[in-house]
Design brief:
single chain; about 850 residues; alpha+beta; seven-stranded mixed beta sheet; 30 helices; about 50% helix
């Protein structure tokens, strides 16, 4: 995707015009113009020169963005692109215009409305007063000439924009007033005093100038507010230091950040920010990763641990080896992802785009019709013109164009600050529409690594004795379960004893000699061959197994020392996260390859009612396909084993990505390994979508009410008449209101579930089907058919009998007979009938 900076846009009509012009080029698959950031993203094989020519032919200027040189966070040119250069220019233009406007208002209204004194020369000299107004209005129009160059340029290129409306309104007022001024000189010459007085009170020089000044004020406020929408990206860019301390030939050398190369050894001192991604090779420290992950608790780092660019070294002196530099650092990838996510338009923006494309021409036509109708109705030309000008300056395509991108920009920024990355605006919009959340078990609900859950010492033993024996034995093993015991022992500061004659024996067991006594460790089957296990401990072991845990027995000589139970531990936040998800979506399902017993135990502990177990990675795709028929599905997994299912779901969320944020199979990436970030992502999407709807409502409502009001529709009914100056003020504030509303998102807490509205659950459909099956011969056949049917998400349970040749299926949702038939016949049995 190639990105360009666009110069000359003023409203949504401009962006629509550019999109149409570029999309007409051959081999262009995507063209998206962002009015908020004045950028354009193009996908296709068309040459850059042709794209630039197409934009210029449409009346604008395109400059190729320079995003691929180095890192986002260290490249000054990228920071300059986000620097607010427009607001200072508009501010200067506004205040200079304001000085002349005050003088103009003094001469036009000050002496008549407020009875302010005028110099003697101007007393009763209406021609001189009018001439001063002409000169002051001309100066203000010259200061704000950009409206006229942009507006009339758009008209010439048959692409009228907001500036066209402003230019036409101001020009019409000025030309009419100038004509009246010349007519006044004629009346003055022939001595027609009443004619001079009548024309003097029918001048619109102040309106011509006031329109420009008020619109400039609105543009200035809009520009300042726009700048705030990119604060999140700006803050990320400022995280990385400009220089790094590297070690070369035993010496510390300070070099620019862009000169750091892969495998360079860089030094971190207390209080310094990490310059590039790396791995600790010497020392220990505590790193604050809040800026990157949103986690406020610092993380301890030791040799072998990764450190990320932009995080802060709080304590300790460490040496690290650079593993990612420049544009490949984690923070650079985050900034690039957030920036690119704003380029692709959300589906909800298409409504506004369609309206914006015809908005300005329609307004111009309405303005002309309004003027003509009032003249036909017998009103003076000045009155009719004022109504037409009011329509021009009241109408605002900007609010429509900004309604979606400002909310998307702010929403993406909030997500990035909290370690939630949406790859594009479509993902940000669709995540909030989730109806069904499917969670992988290992690494998503659970930690993905074994941990000790129970320590049960036998008689005459205490926990410390049991853990010491187990640690001394298992420390020599490479088995994953052994690592859990070693980790627990180290946490408890257990001192291991030396063992001899260590043997890994067949039958899942270990043996060794410790203090001249034989010690054993292993499963029930292995230990039963060495000692006699009492029923009390056998029952405890069975209960642990039913809870999805793995009991390990330990013995010394011919005596049981105790049992240590190990399981894949549930994450601390999983239960609360699932509770939140149940309020936000209609269904929460656990999808796992584990056995059904273990999966159901985990499901019950975390509060998940629907569990689909024993599914291989390729089988998960089939489950997702079926669920998508019932609603929008979000799949949450680790992005590796679950890649096919993540890709197939409406939204794929990769959890615990850490520094590997470029996971192709997902649309949403969670840097942290926290399940609670999933409801936070859905909540953020819902709030952003609601904000977009509010903005669109305001933009449409403003124009639906404002245009008839400006045209004078309410004059016969309520005698409400709108002065063009007030119309210009309303136009200026409409865009500011839309942006201000989007900025409110900055103050929300996406982790707060108190305001979540509980989703009305879809009632499960309870229905039965009886399937006649040919070919089942034994209980093994029954088990195969039962498993095949119960793997379908619509099947709640299946009762199969090979003797009757039938399967009775209880459904929780509608399912086509062909799906049931295929599931059974894939197991090499024949379906005769389905009732």
């Amino acid at each position: 995707m190639i990105q360009f900076n666009i110069i000359g846009m003023s409203c949504a009509s401009c962006s629509s015009r550019i999109e149409k012009a570029v999309s007409k080029l051959p081999n262009i698959t995507l063209c998206s113009v962002n009015l908020l950031t004045n950028t354009m993203a193009v996908d296709g094989t068309c040459s850059i020169e042709d794209i630039i020519k197409a934009v210029e032919k449409a009346g604008y200027k395109a400059i190729l963005k320079n995003d691929n040189k180095t890192s986002y966070n260290n490249n000054n040119s990228n920071e300059d692109e986000l620097k607010d250069l427009e607001t200072p220019i508009l501010k200067k233009r506004f205040f200079i215009s304001l000085i002349f406007l005050i003088a103009l208002m003094y001469f036009s209204m000050g002496h008549t409305m407020l009875q302010l004194p005028l110099p003697d020369f101007f007393n009763e000299n209406f021609l001189a007063i009018s001439l001063v107004q002409f000169i002051l209005a001309s100066i203000i129009m010259i200061i704000n000439q950009k409206f006229f160059t942009s507006g009339f340029n758009g008209l010439i290129h048959k692409a009228p924009n907001m500036d066209t409306l402003v230019a036409l309104g101001s020009s019409a007022s000025f030309i009419y007033s100038s004509y009246s001024l010349f007519l006044m000189t004629y009346y003055e010459k022939i001595g027609n005093v009443s004619g001079v007085m009548h024309i003097f009170h029918d001048l619109y020089f102040e309106s011509a100038a006031m329109i420009l000044v008020l619109i400039t004020l609105g543009k200035m406020l809009e520009s300042k507010s726009k700048g705030k929408t990119t604060n999140a990206i700006k803050s990320l860019m400022k995280l990385s230091p400009k220089k790094a301390i590297i070690e070369k030939e035993g010496k510390e050398i300070i070099i620019p950040i862009d000169d750091v190369k892969l495998d360079d050894i860089f030094i971190l001192k207390p209080g310094e920010n990490v310059p590039v991604d790396g791995i600790v090779v010497e020392g220990e420290s505590v790193i604050n990763e809040a800026a990157l992950t949103g986690e406020s608790i610092p993380v301890e780092k030791e040799v072998g641990d990764n450190v990320s660019c932009g995080t802060t070294n709080q304590y300790g002196f460490v040496k690290c080896k650079a593993t990612r530099v420049g544009k490949d650092t984690t923070i650079s990838q985050i900034i690039r992802m957030v920036s690119e996510s704003n380029m692709v338009k959300a589906p909800v923006a298409k409504i506004a785009d369609k309206v914006s494309s015809i908005f300005v021409p329609t307004v111009i036509v309405i303005s002309i019709i309004t003027t003509i109708v009032w003249i036909i109705c017998g009103k003076e030309f000045g009155f009719a013109l004022a109504r037409g000008i009011s329509v021009l300056v009241m109408s605002c395509p900007c609010a429509l164009g900004l309604a979606t991108p400002v909310a998307i920009m702010v929403g993406n920024g909030i997500g990035a600050k909290n370690g939630i990355l949406f790859k594009n605006s479509i993902a940000l919009e669709q995540t909030g529409k989730t109806e069904i959340v499917v969670l992988d078990k290992t690494g998503t609900i659970t930690k993905g690594e074994p941990g000790i859950t129970n320590i049960i010492p036998a008689k005459d033993f205490i926990e410390e004795d049991l853990l010491t024996l187990a640690y001394s034995l298992e420390v020599k093993s490479e088995h994953p379960l052994a690592k859990a015991i070693v980790k627990k022992a180290k946490e408890n500061n257990i001192i291991k004893k030396e063992v001899e004659s260590f043997v890994i024996e067949s039958g899942n067991g270990l043996s060794a000699t410790m203090e001249k006594e034989k010690i054993y460790g292993g499963n029930k089957k292995y230990i039963s061959t060495k000692i006699n296990i009492e029923d009390e401990y056998l029952n405890k072991a069975n209960n642990l197994s039913m809870e999805g845990k793995t009991p390990l027995f330990f013995a010394k000589e011919n005596k049981l020392c105790g049992i240590i139970a190990i399981a894949d531990e549930i994450k601390e936040d999983s239960i609360d996260a699932i509770k939140q998800l149940k309020k936000l979506v209609k269904r929460v399902i656990m999808l796992t390859g584990d056995n059904e017993q273990t999966a159901k135990v985990i499901g019950e502990r975390v509060g998940i009612d629907e569990v689909v177990a024993g599914v291989l990675p390729n089988g998960k795709q089939n489950v997702i396909s079926e669920l998508k028929k019932q609603g929008n599905v979000t799949m949450v997994g680790d992005g590796i084993n679950d890649a096919p299912a993540l890709s197939l779901a409406n939204i794929g969320i990769a959890i615990g990505a850490g520094s590997d944020i470029a996971i192709d199979s997902s649309q949403v990436v969670l840097i942290n390994n926290k399940l609670s970030d999933v409801p936070s992502a859905i909540r953020l999407s819902k709030l952003t979508l609601r904000n977009i709807h509010q903005n669109l409502f305001w933009a449409f409502f403003y124009n639906v009410i404002g245009i008839p009001l400006a045209a004078g529709v309410f004059i016969p009914l309520f005698n409400i008449k709108l002065n063009p100056m007030f119309g210009a003020a309303a136009m200026s504030m409409s865009s500011v209101c839309v942006i201000s509303n989007a900025l409110r998102l900055n103050y929300i807490n996406i982790h707060d579930s108190k305001k979540d509205k509980k989703i009305k659950k879809r009632e499960k459909i309870k229905m039965k089907k009886i399937i006649t099956i040919e070919g089942m011969m034994c209980a093994h056949c029954e088990a195969r058919v039962k498993k095949a049917l119960e793997d379908l998400p619509q099947v709640e349970s299946a009762t199969v009998s090979h003797e009757d040749g039938k399967a009775q299926v209880l459904l929780n949702n509608e399912v086509e007979n062909d799906i049931l038939k295929k599931a059974i016949e894939d197991q090499d049995y024949k379906v005769i009938n389905i009732e």
